Amino acid sequence: METQILTDPMIKPNNKVLETALGKNFKRFMEFLSKIGELNLVPEWNYYNDGKSWLCKILNKKKNLAWLSVWNTGFKLSFFFTEKTIAGVYELDIDDEIKTIAKDMKPTGKLLPVVFLIKNKKMLSAGLRLLEYKMRLK
What we know:
Structural class: alpha+beta
Order of helices and strands: HHEEEEHHEH
Distance between the termini: 38 Å
Radius of gyration: 14 Å
């Protein structure tokens, strides 16, 4: 069963905590951090009481592009699009699995979520392409 981890408000995520939590997925996580750094994006960890867990915002200046969460199966990226901007996701050169996920997700209010586990290089690449797409949106 998939479980969200990093739920203790007193233990702020750092490399040691994340390496323990992610295990074999830590290397992919570090690769992700390196790639978003190249895009001048900033990860910002905060503890959220409503979900009782730590979440990481991926920021472009002050704009939140995506959320990152840590699970016992690895780390997930969560993107939120409007009805108008989701169409651009289907035009991206990304794995069809992500496009299917986007089509199958139930709306959250007026926003359309795209949430997926970074489980391989294809998913990592798709996550980076979605970040670049969100950077271009107004």
